[in-house]
């Protein structure tokens, strides 16, 4: 019997699990993917938005602003790369400049401080912006973050504080039993007094398992370019065009790993469609070129797409099922979902969970995740201390991103450990660089196969059946 | 009349062989020899790897020490794939003697200590 | 801190040759830094033959070619730091290295950068469609097959008909995979004709010219490749799609100089994406030399070795303080010439200078013309020029002595 079962281990589920782990509760997180942060949290713009842009009084506006304020502390506690580089929203004509002023007003209502910069001020801080810019809205509290490790470390910290995580387990049905719910998965059944539906783009399907709903998830795809580390100062802020009804538009930004990201597009899609197409990406490229000049697209190392869990209500849906106060839906968490995630957790706990269950503080709660190793950032003395203790830190596995074997083994010896190449990649950056794992993939397969004591042919790239290798060659007659 | 691409060197001459086996288009004499051989008995050097029995997950590269008939390549691969060798291995040492009785040896092209 | 006269970064064919030459020229205090546990670089996984025709008049396999140099290095007792990685190089040539002994700084007086190249990947060519497993570079597949002993595919399509693509097609076939097609976006192959013969024709593997991948399909492992013909502008021709049911797409779509470690040293880079160099292969940074595939991508290892020798000579002249820059000639690629290495000629130390370049498209019946603003220095007739083949033209430094300005490498059509 669990107090709370959270369905979904994306950023919303992970942040909520972590915040709930400060209470004496029996919590289970069920995730159908083979890793946390594997769908929408894996593929987005990685921006901690300032919050001037959502419509005042919407949940998006409130939770964005409240979430943003928490990130300095969260980044420190969860050992995640985060940097408040600020955002610039650009105006290229007088009409757009007027809109910027309206946006600044909207920001005031949302209690977000912004500044209007003139042409010279804009170009002075961002010389690579097109010369026809006439002004910009500067939002200093916007930032960039490593979204994968934000989620991985949040879940890790939740597990350190007692939360149980089940991966590769899919919810098949949910049945009401007295005042509780019985969650039936493809592997087991669990009784729980509270269900939290944080299942991203599947939230409508999960919600429908207990009652009819008057909303739906209509996913929208966003396609991106990722560029190599070619110049640490190409752009220094998150560069936005004016937002439109379709979203915040194509941005150009540095990432926490000093790559550059250009995107996203926004188009309706099916729930499992992560494909990229030429027409859309050509449009993304052209939109970006209208803002920033000389973007070296020949430095592209990856194109990818992510899916937004856009809801039919166009605001976050955070509310109990109509019939059941102990079944809480958190749905439609599209942008600014990442930045809002800690505030969403607070909102759910304060408004709903605290009214359903007695929250007793967990005396052993430690908000600090066991620190991860960032070998490259250490002093030579510290590096040598580490190597003296463990020779694995003297072996570089990924040459592009300079990731040591020791760091890969560190993430393997955690509660929330990777089982796939993508899992290793999103935690350690091994394979994220310019060769895109061309050199190191075979070595990471060796590491995973040794760690899990399975044959190399069993190692997956990402989802089930995404194996890389078919069979061992030259083993005599039994080649299969 | 037959047309052939010479594979002796990276130049890749386009060779023409007439009905009297006269070769034209060759930059050097080796092209002529190649053309006649390719018509009567096409042969290739085979390069591949052999598994090393006493080293974990180690293969050693090997080659035929002479050209072998083209139509025997897959037969030789089969023999090699079933064979394992013991390290240490030295470059040019014989891994498989007189493979398929062709008078050709499979030799190591690298070192395993 | 280790003090060292000459540090060579990379123990592949370029690095080994440069070490040998520098040693021969009297520089004995050398360290070669190699990330692998043995010398040889990428040659170790290139088990096919065809290496060394220029230098040894033999057709060696990659490991055999490497072995000849490894033996020399061992004989001369040149210091090699194997399984050693470089974390950074600063502008004073402090090289931060990492190996089993820990992190250490090597202070070098000169550096030869010979770090090779890496393969362009799916992202770099904007490969459209899903993101399944089974899409990998030809070199990665080669490593699985030749080094690790695992088969990464059963039914393969190869994109790119450069030599790596062709050789991998044969290797895959011999090891039991079925190669359904080799696709080439250009109307001609970028591989050697002999490789088309012995790697594709010998095994009845079809080569589709003017054809590329339009879309890849597969939610987990690759299931299908949709290929499509392209017109002369590279646009897809609707209705010419061909579907291949396959589990693997191998990419052999070009190599890029691996210059990550020196990109922040304030030096210029050329259109090859390697550094700008002079005739001694010295970069803008005095004492930093570059050679091999990190300078520009070669098609024959023999040429890489020769370039290594030249960098070794250059670095030894630098260390002996013999480089006096008494010339100032810029070498400019014109029209059909895509690039020329070196980009500058700064000294009269060499009697002859080899200009290395490639053309942008196949050309027939042309003259290569080397000229300055006043006259033609050299005119060489050529029956064919191919983008896949690097051209080497030797000019006499004497011809340049009066010329402090520009020389041009151009192609002239014969009418």
Secondary structure topology:
The complex is a heterotrimer of chains A (480), B (113) and C (415).
Chain A: E1 2-7, H1 11-20, E2 27-30, E3 47-48, H2 59-78, E4 82-83, E5 87-91, H3 94-109, E6 115-118, H4 119-125, E7 135-139, E8 143-145, H5 147-160, E9 164-166, E10 171-177, E11 180-185, E12 189-197, H6 203-207, E13 220-227, E14 238-240, E15 251-254, E16 260-263, E17 267-268, H7 278-291, E18 300-308, E19 317-320, E20 327-331, H8 337-356, H9 380-389, E21 396-398, E22 403-404, H10 405-412, H11 421-428, H12 441-452, E23 471-472
Parallel strand pairs in A: 1-2, 1-12, 2-9, 5-14, 12-20
Antiparallel strand pairs in A: 3-8, 4-8, 5-7, 6-7, 10-11, 11-12, 13-16, 13-17, 13-18, 15-16, 19-20, 21-22
Helix pairs in contact in A: 1-5, 1-8, 2-8
Chain B: E1 2-5, E2 14-17, E3 23-24, H1 29-40, E4 43-44, E5 47-52, E6 59-64, E7 68-69, H2 73-82, E8 84-85, E9 94-96, E10 106-108
Parallel strand pairs in B: 5-8
Antiparallel strand pairs in B: 1-2, 2-3, 4-7, 5-6, 6-10, 9-10
Chain C: E1 2-9, H1 13-24, E2 30-33, E3 49-51, H2 53-56, E4 60-61, H3 62-75, E5 79-81, E6 85-89, E7 94-99, E8 102-113, E9 117-119, E10 135-137, H4 138-148, E11 150-151, E12 155-159, H5 163-174, E13 178-183, H6 193-200, E14 207-208, E15 211-217, E16 224-229, E17 242-245, E18 248-251, E19 255-257, E20 288-290, H7 301-319, E21 329-333, E22 337-341, E23 344-345, E24 352-359, E25 363-372, E26 376-385, E27 391-396, E28 406-413
Parallel strand pairs in C: 1-2, 1-8, 2-5, 8-20, 10-18, 12-13, 12-18, 13-14, 21-28
Antiparallel strand pairs in C: 3-4, 6-7, 7-8, 9-19, 15-16, 16-17, 21-23, 22-24, 24-27, 25-26, 25-28
Helix pairs in contact in C: 1-3, 1-7, 4-5, 5-6
Write down the CATH class of the largest domain in chain A: Alpha Beta
Q: How many alpha or pi helices of chain C?
A: 7
SSE class of chain A: alpha+beta
* Biggest sheet overview of chain C: 7 strands, mixed
Flag low-confidence runs of chain C: none
Q: What's the number of extended β-strand segments of chain A?
A: 23
Nearest-angstrom radius of gyration of chain A?
A: 23 Å
Helical coverage of chain A, percent range: 25-40%
**End-to-end gap of chain A:** 44 Å
The chain pair with the largest interface is: A-C, 57 and 52 residues
Fraction of residues in β-strands of chain A: 15-25%
Shape of chain A: globular
The CATH architecture term of the largest domain in chain A is: 3-Layer(bba) Sandwich
Largest sheet of chain A: 8 strands, mixed
């Amino acid at each position: 019997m669990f107090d709370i079962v959270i369905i979904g281990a994306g950023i919303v589920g992970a942040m909520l699990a972590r915040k709930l782990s400060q209470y004496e509760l029996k919590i289970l997180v069920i995730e159908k993917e083979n890793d946390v942060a594997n769908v929408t949290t894996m593929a987005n713009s990685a921006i901690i938005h300032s919050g001037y842009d959502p419509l005042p009084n919407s949940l998006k506006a409130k939770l964005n602003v409240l979430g943003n304020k928490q990130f300095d502390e969260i980044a420190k506690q969860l050992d995640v790369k985060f940097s408040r580089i600020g955002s610039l929203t650009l105006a290229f004509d007088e009409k757009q400049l007027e809109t910027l002023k309206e946006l600044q007003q909207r920001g005031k209502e949302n209690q977000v401080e912004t500044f209007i910069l003139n042409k010279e001020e804009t170009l002075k801080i961002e010389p690579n912006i097109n010369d026809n810019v006439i002004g910009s809205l500067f939002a200093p509290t916007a930032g960039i973050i490593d979204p994968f490790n934000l989620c991985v470390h949040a879940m890790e910290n939740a597990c350190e504080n007692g939360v149980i995580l089940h991966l590769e387990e899919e919810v098949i049905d949910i049945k009401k039993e007295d005042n509780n719910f019985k969650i039936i998965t493809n592997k087991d059944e669990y009784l729980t007094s509270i269900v939290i539906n944080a299942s991203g783009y599947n939230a409508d399907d999960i919600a429908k398992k207990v009652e009819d709903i008057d909303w739906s998830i209509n996913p929208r795809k966003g396609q991106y370019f990722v560029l190599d580390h070619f110049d640490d100062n190409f752009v220094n802020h998150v560069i936005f065009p004016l937002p439109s009804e379709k979203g915040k538009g194509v941005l150009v930004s540095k990432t926490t790993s000093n790559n550059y990201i250009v995107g996203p597009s926004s188009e309706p899609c099916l729930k499992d469609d992560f494909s990229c197409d030429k027409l859309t990406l050509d449009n993304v490229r052209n939109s970006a070129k209208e803002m920033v000049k000389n973007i070296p697209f020949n430095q592209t190392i990856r194109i990818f797409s992510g899916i937004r869990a856009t809801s039919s209500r166009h605001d976050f849906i955070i509310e109990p099922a109509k019939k059941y106060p102990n079944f809480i839906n958190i749905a439609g968490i599209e942008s600014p979902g990442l930045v809002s995630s800690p505030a969403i957790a607070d909102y759910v706990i304060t408004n709903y969970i605290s009214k359903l269950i007695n929250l007793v503080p967990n005396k052993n709660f430690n908000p600090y995740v066991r620190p991860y190793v960032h070998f490259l950032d250490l002093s030579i003395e510290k590096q040598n201390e580490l190597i003296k203790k463990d020779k694995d830190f003297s072996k570089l596995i990924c040459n592009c991103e300079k990731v040591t074997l020791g760091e890969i083994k560190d993430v393997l010896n955690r509660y929330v450990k990777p089982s796939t190449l993508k899992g290793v990649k999103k935690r350690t950056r091994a394979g994220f660089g310019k060769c895109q794992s061309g050199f190191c993939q075979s070595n990471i397969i060796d590491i995973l196969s040794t760690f899990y004591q399975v044959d190399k042919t069993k190692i997956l790239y990402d989802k089930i059946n995404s194996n890389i290798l078919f069979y061992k060659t030259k083993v005599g007659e039994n080649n299969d | 009349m037959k047309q052939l691409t010479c594979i002796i060197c990276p130049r890749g001459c386009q060779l023409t062989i007439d009905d009297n086996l006269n070769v034209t288009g060759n930059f050097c004499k080796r092209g002529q020899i190649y053309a006649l051989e390719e018509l009567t008995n096409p042969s290739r050097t085979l390069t591949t790897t052999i598994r090393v029995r006493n080293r974990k997950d180690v293969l050693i590269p090997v080659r035929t020490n002479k050209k072998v008939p083209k139509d025997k390549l897959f037969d030789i691969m089969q023999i090699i794939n079933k064979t394992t060798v013991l390290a240490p291995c030295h470059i040019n040492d014989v891994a498989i003697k007189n493979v398929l009785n062709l008078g050709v040896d499979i030799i190591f092209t690298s070192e395993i200590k | 801190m280790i003090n060292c006269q000459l540090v060579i970064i990379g123990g592949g064919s370029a690095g080994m040759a440069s070490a040998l030459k520098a040693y021969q020229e009297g520089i004995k205090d050398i360290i070669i830094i190699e990330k692998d546990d043995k010398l040889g670089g990428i040659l170790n996984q290139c088990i096919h033959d065809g290496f060394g025709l220029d230098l040894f008049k033999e057709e060696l396999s990659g490991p055999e070619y490497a072995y000849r140099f490894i033996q020399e290095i061992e004989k001369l007792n040149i210091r090699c730091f194997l399984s050693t990685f470089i974390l950074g190089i600063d502008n004073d040539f402090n090289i931060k290295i990492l190996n089993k002994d820990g992190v250490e700084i090597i202070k070098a007086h000169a550096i030869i950068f010979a770090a090779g190249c890496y393969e362009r990947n799916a992202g770099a060519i904007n490969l459209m469609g899903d993101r399944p497993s089974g899409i990998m570079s030809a070199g990665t597949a080669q490593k699985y097959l030749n080094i690790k002993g695992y088969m990464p595919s059963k039914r393969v399509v190869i994109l790119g008909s450069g030599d790596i693509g062709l050789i991998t097609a044969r290797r895959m076939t011999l090891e039991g995979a079925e190669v359904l097609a080799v696709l080439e976006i250009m109307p001609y192959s970028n591989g050697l004709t002999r490789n088309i013969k012995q790697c594709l024709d010998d095994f009845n593997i079809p080569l589709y010219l003017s054809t590329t991948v339009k879309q890849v399909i597969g939610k987990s492992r690759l299931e299908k490749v949709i290929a499509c013909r392209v017109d002369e502008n590279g646009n897809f021709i609707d209705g010419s799609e061909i579907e291949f049911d396959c589990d693997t797409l191998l990419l052999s779509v070009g190599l890029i100089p691996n210059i990550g470690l020196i990109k922040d040293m304030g030096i210029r880079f050329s259109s090859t994406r390697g550094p700008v160099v002079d005739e001694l292969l010295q970069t803008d940074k005095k004492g930093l030399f570059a050679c091999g595939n990190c300078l520009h991508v070669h098609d024959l290892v023999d040429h890489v070795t020769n370039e290594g020798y030249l960098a070794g000579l250059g670095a030894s002249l630098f260390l002996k303080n013999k480089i006096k820059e008494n010339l100032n000639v810029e070498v400019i690629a014109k029209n059909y010439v895509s690039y020329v290495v070196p980009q500058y000629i700064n000294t009269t130390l060499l009697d002859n200078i080899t200009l290395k370049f490639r053309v942008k498209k196949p050309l027939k019946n042309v003259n290569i013309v080397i000229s300055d603003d006043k006259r033609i220095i050299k005119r060489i007739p050529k029956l064919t020029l191919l983008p896949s083949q690097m051209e080497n033209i030797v000019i006499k430094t004497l011809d340049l002595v009066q010329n402090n300005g520009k020389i041009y490498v151009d192609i002239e059509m014969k009418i």
